[in-house]
Amino acid sequence: KIRKMVLIKSILIYTTCFSLLMSLFVFYILGVARYVTDFEENTCDMTYMFEYPQYVRISLGNEIEEQYPRYGLYAYGEGFVTEKLRRMYFSGIPVLFIPGNAGSHEQVRSLASVSLRKSLKGRTQFHFDYFTVSLGKDYSALYGGVLMEETVYVSHCIQKILNLYKTNMQNVVLIGHSMGGIIAKGSILLTSNINASVANIIITLATPHAPTLVLDSTLANYYYNLENHLSKIKDAGTNVISIGGGPRDILVTSLQLLDSTADINVLSTNIPDVWKSTDHLSILWCKQLVLSIVRSLFDSVSVSQRPPRISSKSEDRMQALSYHFYHRVSGKKLHYYKETIQFEFGGEWIEDIRRQYTWSNKNLSKRTSPIYLMIRLNGQPSQLTIDTINLESKDWLFICTASSIQNQSRICNWGWNLTNRTRLLPDPLHRLRKVVDLNLQEIKYPDATHIVVRITPDDLEKYVSVNVDLYSYDARLVPVKSSVPLLNSLLIRPQVKKSDIGHIRYYAVLDDSIDVITVELKPSECTNPKHNAIVELSEPWSIGVTQIQFFTDVDTGLKTMKIQTKSKHSNVSAKLRLTLYPACSYTINVQEGVAHGIAVRFLARAIAFSTTWSDWLLGGLNQLPFITAMFVLSIIPMTCGALAMLISVFLRFLNLTRMYEDYLEELLITSLQHFNWMGRLRHTKDNPKEHEDTRQKIFNHLLLFLLWCFTALPAIPSVLVWAKNFSYNIRLSTEDSLLYQSWIVLVACSTLGWLQIPPNYLGIRSRALASVLYFLGWITLLMGAATRPQFYQYYIPPIVAGATSLITLNFIIP
Question: Is the dihedral of CA 215, 266, 588, 380 positive or negative?
Fold first, then answer.
């Protein structure tokens, strides 16, 4: 009875533990799935062509065309513009687009078409000539053998483009998508025919400035050489802008988009009037982003030069680029702010001493004079946030000294302009929204008494509201609850913050260990049902990395936000900035999300092979290892070593399946013999040791097959490039020499049958071999802990080839 009770108790304990562990595992899987797939929808508008796009081929000369038959240079045109291009007549400012991994030259059409329409609609004194290069849709992100070819060809294209102009054209704008951004920098740094000064602006879109996969030494050496020459870009005064897509881009992470030499590193989620995450391809056609890029180039042109061209002064170009990618606070065209502004006489001055209030023109009659809202500076509290709706004035925020009297009230005659400290804020209702956050203790102007918001009569033509919030910073900090185990989270109530009506701004400072957070805003006591709130996640160590989430009356669910880049500085932390609807009270809950660093990488193209092999042929090759080895080895000098490596993997798989098939047959015969079901097998003796050796051989071959599959991964890009270029050249001449030699060793040892794992480790030589293999294994593991582990990936095949050679020598030497 006692045993029965103990047994029941044990079953209950084990069942409970198992159920708990399974529940935790299921929750973990669900969390991982949400972490990987929980991205905002693609809300970019599509760009459309008004006329059919045309691509006019430009010849680079017979010698270059014969040397690079797979590549081509084109000029983009539409309608009547195409006829001028066919006559090789170019009179604009040259822009060269370079596609990325497996990209097409036709991907330029969104940028080129929008730019063309802007120049025609605006009747500008200048226009841009867009050129694009076709690189044969090479897999430049996976196979380094094509990088230098593409780089040299693009440098020839730049020379040809500049020679097309009758005027003295000396500069070109380079725009590169994905690996095209790397090629753009390489074309002016790693070639001898041009230098860095030939490009005055380089814009990279979703470019991996740090590689994801380095499967051959050629790719690694290209990145190393490029890094060693990057200082020349700064010396030449070239402006570099790196733009990334943010969380939706799963091919290139935000951390890879950070370029150490770039003047501007920015995500599309942080660009004013874009505020949307783009995936790896939509970054080329996202209308909001394309418009920002085109406007920045137009504002970078100096019309005082004849003919107009991109400004020769780097600081002027940076002013235009920064305005559109960082600090745009007013119109769509670059606006220069005056340091001081004289106020108009006769305006209405309104001073409200409340700390939180909302002013609007809802019940105001039409005015012909401006309205000035005054906010008194009295030292307490120290923080001021002003949120405006539909305020279109380009100069609207000032600080002044109220020294004059009007209608028994103090007013200002002039003020210092603070508009350049403001910023645009996205609005769920698509209204023009401007906001400013001021630390009043840091504003140092002599005898300043008031902050002033100016509202012009033109602004009053439509509904305008101004929300003012004076507060202390510490009082607006929201606690961030760390993640806890499941049981604890069920028992402990999360810390929350309750806002009051009229409050606009709240903050949350994130600990350095936090990767993911969840934000919950529950509105209550709303006087207007059409409420909305905005949450911004900023990473101060990367100025251009900010994400935005909306809470509306129809979407109040939990929002997940992920840190895109990791801080390398201990004195800064990521920060949440919450903009609340002042007519609502909110319950704010910010909690650390549970996540792990998950590397999500996909190939940009999937290649499907449909090949049928005859069973008798495969069987024959398997039975004749010498002929098989000669056949596979003969493929190497005729095609490429990578192809032979993949064939050897396939043959090893066949060998493994045949061994397993024989083992099952022997196992079946033994079973029949045991039950005396087959008389002719009655006298056959079962040998358990023989079965044990067979199982060990199958296990050994399975390990070798898995090792072969892992080692052969760097061979896949080479085979893809060889197959794509087969019509031009049957031999892959750009194959990495280190990998090429490794493939020869691995293919020879595998197909000749010399690669055999010894059944035991008896003897000094076997023990020494085991020690060497252990050492090589540890070396491989330590490479993963290096500072830049991706640059050591291509060392795996040579290490495996060395280990294979030692195992083979141990087998063939008696």
Answer: positive
Q: Is the pLDDT of residue 444 over 80?
A: yes
C-alpha span between 222 and 200 (Å, rounded)? 23
Q: How far apart are CA 398 and CA 415, in angstroms?
A: 6
The pairing of beta strand 128-134 with beta strand 93-98: parallel
CB 644 within 8 A of CB 736: no
Give the Å distances, CA to CA, from 642 to 138, 636, 733, 804, 807.
17, 8, 12, 17, 22
User: What are phi and psi for residue 262, nearest 5 degrees?
Assistant: -75, 140
Whole-structure pTM value: 0.81
Query: Any idea what DSSP says for residue 67?
Result: H
- Containing 615, the helix (H) or strand (E) segment is helix 615-623
Give Cα separations from 192 to 27, 67, 133, 159, 173 (angstroms): 57, 17, 20, 12, 19
> Each residue of 734-750: pLDDT tens digit?
888 888 888 888 888 88
Domain spans of the chain, in order of start? 53-326, 340-474, 479-484+492-599, 620-677+686-812
By three-state DSSP, how is residue 774 classified? helix
CA angle 352, 504, 395 (to 5 degrees): 65
Q: Where are the beta strands (DSSP E) in 409-515?
A: 409-411, 414-417, 423-424, 433-439, 450-455, 465-471, 480-481, 497-498, 505-509
User: Tell me: the pLDDT tens digits for 331-386?
Assistant: 888 888 889 999 998 899 999 999 999 999 988 888 889 999 999 998 778 899 99
Map tokens 């495996």 to a residue. Answer: 800
Pick the CATH number of 479-484+492-599 from 2.60.120.1300, 2.102.10.10, 1.10.10.10, 3.40.50.2300: 2.60.120.1300
| Range in 176-180, 556-560, 757-761 the model is least confident about | 757-761
- β partners of residue 46: 286
- Angle at which helices 715-724 and 641-674 cross, to 10°: 120
Give the fold, CATH level 3, of 53-326.
Rossmann fold (3.40.50)
Chain mean position to CA 673: 63
Other residues' Cβ atoms within 10 Å of the Cβ of residue 667: 13
CATH number of 340-474: 2.60.120
